[in-house]
Design brief:
The complex is a heterotetramer of chains A (532), B (165), C (478) and D (100). With 165 residues, chain B is an all-alpha fold. Helices cover 75% and strands 0% of the residues of chain B. In chain C, strand 3 and strand 4 form a beta hairpin. Chain C is mostly helical. Classes of the chains: A mainly alpha (532), B mainly alpha (165), C mainly alpha (478), D mainly alpha (100). At the B-C interface, helix 4 and helix 6 of B face helix 2, helix 5, helix 6 and helix 9 of C.
């Protein structure tokens, strides 16, 4: 057995948190350095995932599987072309988050960093779990550190915001838990064995009625997390109240757990129900795009502006996911990374401004660029990345998404373009009001340009933005196989029919049998193509 | 004869309990109850349970009720006359009670016929009970010893006057 | 003398109580701790005697005492609970004016009641065991003799408890009338063989359910719980929230384990239990929202947990029930331990406002209490989550989906009030000056044992699960 | 030759009267007396059913129930005394220190 790299990446931050508990409270700097070291080591470890990942293989890699509690509850980790990127995004952003809170967090530093490290483990765990039980454990467990991060270190309305965040998320996930139980029992009834393996459930055939209910259970949990339109209300509150680093993680990674959930569970598990709910979901996503954009336009607080822009951007991502074609889904995944980088960066920038001005209201700023020229350049790049300027990462993702959406529905694509237009409007307008114009607030004259530490965490993000904008192939290539396997699962109804006939043989067996079924399915598909 | 005795005792017993409910004086309540329990002892006798009848009268009417009266004496009789509950709670509980009675009665009605009549072979001789107590019911009998220890300790710890300093 | 061996654990516990009572006369007031240590020693002996009977299926008294594996497991669990409660009482009784050495004797007697209840299938024995437990409990509740709340608690507990036990006796009479026996296997056989549905039997079961409903505090019969929990000395409350409830559910387990097989699950009893379970979960959690006293919050939370436990009974998944009880023991005693930690001589800090800011001031107490609360709320990776997971997944498997949906939504409500305590501890500025006497090694021992239990059962419950499943599997099926 | 059902019915009547007494009465001692009535009603049912079954077991059980009642009475009256010492009252409406 090779080195359990995924376990290491997942649990190394926990080890850091445990270590921090025993470091005396007073040594705040030691705490900071230790936390940074742990996140950096995790990042380096996760990079080996990238280098050793084989993009041609659709199956999960670096698989670790061992029994845990029995009755289908296994310790089962692995990454495929979809989750790999989200893991990397998380490990990439965590050192940045730690750095960004170096000076802005002054009270209870030790506890803060402990929760940060726990949060990292929880999030990574969500992305690498291949067992539904394990997935759910991480999914819920990661709420607790976030709850504390917002509730203890947040703004004035932090308690309201954090309870709303936790309760809304819990509401969805508890119903998802019921759906998981139902899947569990259906699988047991069909095969006589217990399983909670995701890949076993893919093989399960359910009647459309049941699928509808289960899909609702899962989709609600993920829709709240994304958040899709009517369920987004927790997001602005949480963002506005959260400390900078928590906002960064929230926007960059936590929201992706929702889209990831759709890709991993809601779509492939319930293709029939998906078909039924697709129009509704697409409409909600579209509403989210436009509503989020319009709301962003009228925000007075920079942070809530960025928060609403998230609603809008996530709407686009969801719409691309629902387009259910390669371009759309790959674009969505790519855009998930982009959104992570650009929105994360925007929150960092808001944090930098806030640290200096202790306000986030747009009207309190103006003419900042003259005081902070370097900063304004960074700001502009991040902003343009969010808007989707060619040459930067956002462009590639948005184009892919729109292209995918266009293939399914031209009307939707045309409406979806409004994300880009609205984003350009509210972001550039905000930039103009904050950075340019006369200096109205005397405090601004005392602003210092960004320091080395701030530079240290902004530069890697900027580099990634350019890299992903100019040379996206390595990213997309590693997604290809997994995405096409996913779409294959969702789309090919013949396959499902086939499953039904070969149920007895295929259900009980392992992945090999599944691959066999896939093979035959492909053959039949090819034949059908030829006939046409 | 038997049936006459039954009805007499039953009416007296119910009357005693009603007296307890209606009277406002605690000491009277206790006496009503002693009376009702004594009648109950008679009913036990009619049911071919002479030993239990004796136990009922000795323990209930004798020991337990004396304990009650003892406590009533200690807590000052004047306390006993307390305002009754509001009219509507009384009405409500009456309605509930009638409902419960009707319900239980309906449920019980079906099985009354199957219960047979008194008379027949005697079952409750003290010898037989004693034998059962120390054979089939030895374990419960031993448990009661633990029960009584618990009751003793509990009662003493709650009311003993002063901590020994 | 295999049979007699089955009596040894019980004898050890009762002997412990007697020895404590004897020593109490001779020991000085300041040295009451020794009585605690003596009781712990007897508990250890009882535990040893219990463990050594594993898999031996000892029975005695014509089977009315049967030390089967389930009884052994629960006896161990209860001994552990009582040991933890004794550790918690060591300092508490001196601090809070409840300094009576008899508390240890009464706890041991209550334990003997629990043991009697769980190791028998004879309803008469169970009833007597329950009375041993109840009578000791009434006295335990009133142990703070100068505290009016404590007296009221004892009074309410006693009045409603004896009221409930009258129902139990009538139910027993009905069952006896129907089956001519109080032995559960024979009662079940009666239900199986009766030509017509046995009305008398059903009424007997219903009356017994009412009686036990009071004891385990499910919703229409829960009114006494919050007052008793609030007024009783806190370690005793910890015991109440775990011991009687667990024993009550084990009795229900023994009753219903074979009952469902002979009586169709569409019966009135089933739907009555269904409704009680749903009501308990919903009402318990909703009312808890309004409370500001931590003991009352925990009281309503324990009511709500009884609802979840009923789900396990309805789902016929008894190993998940027992696992839930084990998990519940650790998290609840742990939570009460933390509450006890927040006190000083003569004062207990029990209002939510007192909790403001203590999370950072007393990191160990705050931190462990947070974990216990999260476990009660059912967050992974704690025992509470796994327990709920097992119960609810079994319920879905048994087709009780609506009940599970009600359950998880009620659980969502519970998240709110558990987290509210955490909000106070970590996110509010301290209000009233709270200074506690932190020196209490026994308390910290309890905290860490419970923490260990919550995490062990939450992450690696493997062996315990296996033990529970074996215990359940070895139960006789009539 | 009295039908045993009569006794059984009487026990139900007494039991319900006990419940009524428990809820209607306002002083603690009489409330407890009402509980005793309920217990005795159950005892009557037991003995009646034992007679119907022709087995003496029911009478033995009643013996135990009476023992339990005595034990409960001891502790219960002790508790009532305790409360009386604290409050100088044994009225139910005075037991309102805790909202419930």
């Amino acid at each position: 057995m090779s080195f359990p790299i995924l376990s290491f990446v997942t649990f190394f931050p926990v080890a850091g948190a445990v270590l921090l508990i025993f470091v005396p409270k007073e040594k705040t700097n030691l705490h900071r350095y230790l936390a940074l070291a742990f996140t950096l080591i995790t990042l380096v470890a996760s990079l080996t995932l990238y280098f050793h990942f084989d993009g041609a293989v659709a199956d999960p890699q670096f698989v670790e599987k061992s029994g845990w509690l029995g009755y289908g509850i296994n310790y089962h980790l692995g990454v495929d072309g979809i989750s790999l990127w989200l893991v990397l995004l998380t490990t990439f952003l965590l050192p940045i988050a730690v750095l960004s809170s170096w000076t802005s967090i002054q009270k209870r530093v030790k506890e803060y960093l402990i929760f940060m490290l726990l949060l990292e483990s929880g999030i990574i765990g969500v992305f690498v779990s291949l067992n539904l039980f394990l997935f759910y454990v991480f999914w819920e467990a990661m709420l607790i550190p976030m709850y504390f991060l917002i509730g203890v270190w947040g703004g004035p309305r932090r308690i309201y915001a954090t309870l709303k965040f936790v309760l809304m998320t819990m509401f969805g996930s508890l119903l998802m838990l019921v759906a998981i139980f139902a899947l569990y029992s259906f699988y047991y009834k069909a095969t006589g064995t217990y399983s909670l393996e995701i890949f076993d459930f893919y093989k399960l055939i359910l009647n459309p009625q049941v699928q509808g209910w289960l899909f609702l259970g899962f989709a609600l949990a993920f829709a709240i997390k994304v958040p899709m339109f009517p369920f987004h209300t927790w997001l602005p509150d949480a963002h506005v109240e959260a400390p900078t680093a928590a906002s960064v993680i929230l926007a960059a990674v936590l929201l992706k757990m929702g889209t990831y959930g759709f890709l991993r569970f809601a779509l492939p598990l319930f293709p029939d129900a998906l078909e039924r709910f697709l129009p509704l979901l697409s409409i909600l996503a579209l509403i989210g795009i436009i509503y989020g954009g319009l709301m962003a336009l009228i925000q007075k607080d920079i942070k809530s502006l960025v928060a609403y822009s998230s609603v809008s951007h996530m709407g686009l991502i969801m719409l691309a996911v629902f387009s259910l074609n390669t371009e759309g889904v790959e674009g969505a995944i790519y855009q998930m990374l982009n959104h992570g980088l650009s929105t994360g960066a925007l929150f960092l920038i808001v944090g930098i401004l806030y640290e200096r001005a202790h306000t986030r209201l747009i009207k309190d700023f103006g003419g900042v660029s003259s005081q902070m020229p370097v900063f304004s350049a960074f700001f502009l790049v991040c902003l343009l990345s969010a808007v989707g300027l060619p040459g930067l990462n956002g462009f590639v993702g948005e184009i892919l998404c729109l292209f995918g959406i266009f293939k399914t529905s031209q009307l939707q694509a045309i409406l979806a373009v409004s994300t880009v237009i609205l984003a350009a409007a509210y972001l550039l307008w905000m930039y103009q009001r904050v950075m340019h114009g006369p200096i109205t607030n005397e405090k601004i004259r005392s602003f210092k340009d960004i320091n080395k530490r701030e530079l240290g965490y902004l530069v890697p993000i900027i580099i990634m933005m350019f890299w992903m904008g100019i040379y996206p192939q390595p990213f997309l290539r590693k997604m290809d196989a997994s995405v096409s396997r996913l779409l294959d699962r969702v789309h090919n109804r013949e396959r499902i029919f086939l499953r039904e006939t070969s149920q007895t043989t295929s259900l009980k067996s392992d992945r090999a049998a599944e691959a066999e079924v896939d093979q035959t399915a492909k053959k039949i598909l090819a034949e059908l193509e030829e006939k046409r | 004869m038997g049936i006459f005795l039954f009805f007499l005792l039953a009416i007296l017993c119910v009357g005693g309990v009603l007296g307890m409910i209606l009277s406002k004086n605690q000491a009277h309540n206790a006496l009503f109850l002693v009376f009702a329990f004594a009648c109950l002892g008679g009913l036990f006798g009619l049911l071919d349970a002479p030993f239990i009848a004796a136990v009922q009268i000795i323990i209930y009417a004798g020991a337990i009720m004396v304990l009650f009266i003892f406590v009533i004496m200690m807590v000052n009789l004047e306390q006993g006359i307390s305002p009754e509950k509001k009219k509507w709670t009384l009405g409500l509980s009456a309605v509930l009670a009638v409902f419960l009675l009707v319900e239980l009665g309906l449920a019980v009605r079906g099985m009354l016929g199957s219960l047979g009549r008194t008379g027949g072979p005697s079952i409750g001789s003290p010898t037989e009970l004693g034998r059962l107590l120390f054979t089939d019911y030895l374990y419960p009998f031993e448990i009661t010893s633990v029960l009584i220890i618990a009751a003793l300790v509990g009662a003493i710890v709650l009311v003993k006057k002063k901590e020994k300093e | 003398m295999d049979g007699l061996a089955s009596l040894y654990p019980l004898l050890a516990v009762v002997a412990g109580a007697l020895v404590v009572l004897l020593l109490e006369v001779f020991i000085k007031k300041e040295k009451r701790d020794y009585l605690g240590y003596v009781s712990l020693a007897f508990l250890a002996a009882a535990a040893y005697l219990t463990v050594s009977s594993w898999n031996r299926e000892l029975t005695y008294f014509q089977g009315t005492l049967s030390l089967d594996n389930l009884a052994i497991f629960l006896t161990l669990l209860f001994s552990l609970a009582v040991a933890l409660v004794i550790l918690l009482s060591l300092k508490y009784i001196g601090q809070q004016d409840a300094n009576h050495g008899e508390i240890f004797a009464l706890l041991l007697l209550a334990l003997s009641g629990l043991m009697i209840m769980t190791s028998s299938s004879d309803l008469l024995v169970i009833y007597l065991g329950l009375e041993v437990l109840s009578i000791s409990s009434y006295a335990l509740a009133g142990l703070k003799r100068r505290d009016e709340k404590s007296g009221e608690a004892a009074l309410k507990y006693f009045l409603l408890g004896s009221f409930a036990s009258a129902f139990l006796v009538l139910g027993l009479a009905f069952l006896f009338g129907a089956a001519r026996s109080t032995f559960l296997p024979e009662i079940i056989v009666h239900f199986g063989t009766a030509a017509a549905p046995s009305i008398m039997g059903f009424f007997g079961i219903a009356l017994i359910l009412v009686g036990f409903g009071f004891k385990v505090a499910v919703v229409p019969f829960h009114m006494w719980t919050p007052d008793v929990y609030e007024g009783a000395p806190t370690p005793v409350t910890a015991f109440f929230s775990v011991g009687p409830k667990a024993a009550g559910f084990v009795v229900l387990l023994r009753v219903f384990m074979n009952f469902w097989d002979t009586v169709p699950s569409s019966s009135v009893i089933f739907w009555a239990l269904w409704a009680i379970s749903a009501l308990t979960m919903v009402v318990g959690n909703l009312v808890a929202l309004r409370q500001t006293n931590i003991k009352r919050i925990l009281a309503y939370s324990s009511i709500a947990h009884a609802g979840y436990l009923l789900v396990a009974i309805l789902a016929r998944d008894y190993s998940s029930l027992v696992f839930y009880l084990a998990a519940y023991l650790f998290m609840n005693i742990g939570a009460f331990a933390a509450v006890i930690g927040l006190s000083k001589t003569g004062t207990e800090y029990l209002e939510l406002d007192d909790f403001a800011g203590i999370g950072f001031r007393y990191p160990w107490i705050g931190g462990t209490l947070t974990i216990f609360l999260l476990s009660l709320a059912g967050f992974p990776p704690t025992a509470g989550f796994l327990a709920k997971f097992y119960v609810f997944s079994a319920a879905v498997r048994a087709g009780l989906v609506p009940l599970v949906v009600i359950g998880v939504l009620a659980n969502l409500v519970s998240v709110f009030y558990y987290l509210r305590i955490v909000v106070y501890m970590y996110m509010r500025e301290p209000g009233r000056e709270v200074d506690i006497e932190i020196e209490n090694p026994a308390l910290f021992l309890v905290l860490f044992l419970c923490l260990y239990g919550v995490l062990q059962l939450g992450i690696f419950p493997g062996n315990i699960l296996i033990v529970i499943k074996q215990a359940i599997a070895s139960l006789p099926v009539f | 030759m009295i039908p045993v059902g009569y006794f059984f019915s009487l026990s139900i009547v007494l039991f319900v009267l006990g419940i009524i007494g428990f809820f209607v009465k306002r002083d603690l001692i009489t409330m407890f007396m009402a509980v005793e009535v309920m217990l005795n009603a159950a005892n009557l049912a037991f003995i009646a059913l034992a007679k119907a079954a022709g087995s003496p077991a029911g009478q033995v059980i009643v013996f135990f129930v009476i023992t339990v009642a005595a034990a409960e009475a001891a502790v219960g009256l002790a508790i009532i005394l305790l409360v009386f010492r604290q409050k100088k009252s044994i009225k139910a409406e005075d037991m309102r220190l805790m909202k419930g």
